[in-house]
Specification:
By secondary structure, the chain is an all-alpha fold. It has 4 helices and no strands. The radius of gyration is 17 Å and the shape is elongated.
Length: 141
């Protein structure tokens, strides 16, 4: 098992545990609010952590078939996983402060440049991973 696969699997487990822990916070906030609802971004962080957990598993499986060097595998998967992690914790920070129900209402660094970087890193990193799989398992036969 390559280091990139190990990192992706560890990230998957970390995201799953994070989702469970955020679920405890979501429950606490739901039970203590007058409307019996958690802050919007606590709810979003909870779901994102679970979604990214499974996405990291897909990345790990696809990397198993990668023809690329370990450095390329780590770089491509690392870009995606770093942005997954930053996004979960960004949502969680906003949710804990209950400061907004829509981050994109205001144009700022996060809603412009961070989003451009996220789009490029996640799509670019995953495209490298997917192309590696396709080149060995679909087109290579």
């Amino acid at each position: 098992m390559t280091l990139a696969v190990k990192i992706s699997l560890a990230a998957s487990g970390f995201y799953l545990l994070t989702g469970m822990l955020i679920g405890v916070l979501k429950y606490q906030r739901t039970m203590t609010s007058e409307a019996h609802r958690a802050p919007v971004y606590v709810d979003i962080a909870h779901r994102a952590a679970f979604m990214y957990s499974f996405a990291a598993l897909v990345i790990a499986k696809l990397i198993e078939y990668s023809p690329y060097s370990e450095a390329v595998q780590i770089g491509a998967s690392g870009l995606v996983l770093v942005f997954f992690t930053l996004t979960i914790f960004g949502y969680l920070a906003h949710g804990i402060r209950d400061e907004t129900d829509n981050l994109f209402r205001e144009r700022n660094f996060t809603t412009t440049w961070y989003m451009y970087a996220l789009i490029a890193a996640e799509i670019g990193g995953f495209a490298v991973i997917l192309w590696g799989f396709l080149s060995t398992q679909v087109f290579g036969k």
